[in-house]
Amino acid sequence: MLRGINQQTIFEEDEDKLKFLETLKKYKKITGFELYGYCLMDNHVHLLIKEGEEAIANVIKRVSSSYVYWYNMKYQRVGHLFQERFKSENVEDDRYFFTALRYIHQNPLKAGLAKDIFTSMWTSMNEYMRKGELVDIDRAFNQISSDRKAALKWFIHYMQESNKDQCLEYKVRFRLSDNQVRIYLHEMGISNNSLLQRMDRENRDAVLLQIKKLEGVTIRQISRITGISKSVIDRIGT
Question: Is the pTM of this model over 0.90?
Answer without folding.
Answer: no
